Amino acid sequence: MLTLEKIKHASEVLKEAIHTTDVISASKLSAEYEIWLKTENLQKTGSFKIRGAYYKISQLSPEEKKRGVIACSAGNHAQGVALAATKNGIKSLICLPDGAPISKVEATRSYGADICLVPGVYDDAYNRALQLQKEFGYTFIHPFDDEDVIAGQGTIGLEILSQLKGVDAIVVPVGGGGLISGVAFAVKQLNPNVKVYGVQASGAPSMLNSLRDNTIETLPSVSTIADGIAVKQPGEHTFEYCKKYVDGIVTVTDDEISAAILALIEKQKMIAEGAGATPVAAILSGKLPSLKGKKVCCLVSGGNIDVTILSRVITRGLLMSGRQCTLNIELLDKPGQLVAVSQIIAKCGGNVIGVHHERANAGSAVNGCFLRIEIETKDFDQIAQIRNGLTQAGFKIC
User: Fold this and answer.
1) β partners of residue 197
2) What's residue 288's pLDDT?
3) Which segments in the chain show pLDDT lower than 70?
């Protein structure tokens, strides 16, 4: 059974293995909310996952440790289990889908684990891990639905309450529910007045749907850039803890997550992965309006974003925050048109970063053409100013 004493014990055990990550002010992110960030993206392995994995492994019997451990993950849990096992002198085997990013595979290997690449997706790797567990007697380390793992994650709740006096609410990413279960349980035992809210990706709302319908449900598929919380089904334990201790769950879109990642990079000089940015996304997109003016701690759960998609996420974030836009303009194909368009944009303070010119199609004027122009801007108000300037000058924006 999960108890406050177990979480406190986990906190003592983890002192030898983890950082007590800082809680920092993020006043630049919003004028309406008093935002603080719990920086688990700066934790060892770049994620909170080391907490639950290490505590779980530390509590294994000598016989279980001798047999070794096995886990399945495409990212943070794999690295947490690998490092925790190595620190305890235990053999670890991690099953990963063969499409997992090379950077995550090699990071897991670097922490001392043996790697088993499984053709297919996460579910295939999970099934292979269970098969190997039965075949060789490994101890399976579940990523979220285990009370020792939940207790390890709950140590974050203890730290936030001790670091941030007078906190009104804590906002936590939710996938399978291990993190928010531990945090909410610890917080509610010590201060029931502190609100705990969860955030899921709109493309993977498994816990939200399950709580709404009061039964554990399995999504047919998930789709989100927040791969750390792309979970089809919550756990049995985590479902019950969320039902009892969590004050509400909201969802955010991939566009909102991208904008939050960009805001953290620009304004806090901080790298967050998709899952880690979801609490900030929920605040910036107004999904939790009741927290305006309150002291809110956003739990940035991890920073292991795949660099191959970071540039695309930043571009999406620029579009979502009005920092970049594309205009399609119908013109007459005659000298001076591009100069006139450029002058209007420059007068409004925009910066042209891309131009594509093409002849008109069959439905347009014989001497017509189209101009697709990419512009750097300050915000949506400046975009509107540019559009109005072009329209007033007689240009047709498609």
Assistant:
1) 171, 248
2) 96
3) 74, 360-367
pTM attached to this predicted model = 0.88
Q: With residue 227 as reference, give the H or E element that holds it.
A: none
DSSP codes, 39-88: EGGGSGGGBTHHHHHHHHHHTS-HHHHHH-EEEE-SSHHHHHHHHHHHHT
DSSP assigned state of 350: -
Mention every residue, 6+ apart, whose C-beta is less than 8 A from residue 261: 272, 274, 277, 305, 313, 314, 317
- DSSP state letters, 239-281: HHHHHHH--EEEEE-HHHHHHHHHHHHHHH-----HHHHHHHH
What residue has token string 């100013």? 385
Beta bridge partners of 250: 199
Q: Is the dihedral of CA 187, 188, 193, 197 positive or negative?
A: positive
The catalytic residue among 6, 49, 56, 104 is 49
pLDDT at 362: 54
Predicted confidence (pLDDT) per residue in 81-95, tens digit: 999 999 999 999 999
Q: Is 49 a catalytic residue?
A: yes
Question: Tokens representing 8?
Answer: 């406190």
CA distances from 108 to 22, 54, 95, 131, 262 (A): 25, 15, 10, 21, 27
Distance CA 201, CA 181 (A): 17
Give the type of residue at 202.
S
Mark whether 301 is an active-site residue.
yes
The per-residue pLDDT for range 239-250, each reduced to its tens digit, is: 999 999 999 999
Which is catalytic among the residues 11, 258, 301, 321? 301
User: Can you tell me which residue has the tokens 């053409």?
Assistant: 369
Query: What is the model's pLDDT at position 364?
Result: 59
Tell me the backbone φ, ψ of residue 51, rounded to 5 degrees: -65, -55
Strand partners, 370: 330, 358
* pLDDT score of 360: 60
| Dihedrals phi, psi of 304, to nearest 5 degrees | -90, 65
